[in-house]
Amino acid sequence: MNSTFTIASDTLHYVTHGGWTGSLSTGSSSWSNYDVRFGVRPSAWASEVDGLTFAMSGSNRYSLMIVGGNKLVLSKVIAGAETRLASATYAFAGGGWYTLDASVYQGVLSVKVNSSLVMQATDTTLNSGAIAFQANDPVSFDNVVVTQLGTAPVTSALPPRPSPAARI
Question: For 26-133+142-148, which CATH superfamily applies?
Fold first, then answer.
């Protein structure tokens, strides 16, 4: 079976993944100093490694992955070599929606889950690039917003994600 990304709906539209490992990319190699906010509904399977690739240029990138449904891992990949920059324990409930926020601003990488800062790292290796969603297990993504950051990184808390029943 191949990897597939499908537009699904349960009163809302979102992108869902099925099949083998795959990715769905968008953006420009010229994007720099930005924040990516998106909804994710992970499977929380032990084999899960799903998430976001950002500041992606060729084979170089930062990645924010949900691993096994209980950990977030922030890494950089340069010419195929992966270096872990930070990780945090976080218990994701399978089938629940979460808002993840990843920003890269002048060498500072920040990650929030449901508006709470869960990790930061400093790395000036990558300055710009597109984004992609990576998936190897059933996972859904929605409400993707990329925001160019100005003269200072985003520090204010984002509003919490509405419950699925309250979403329009």
Answer: Exo-inulinase; domain 1 (2.60.120.560)
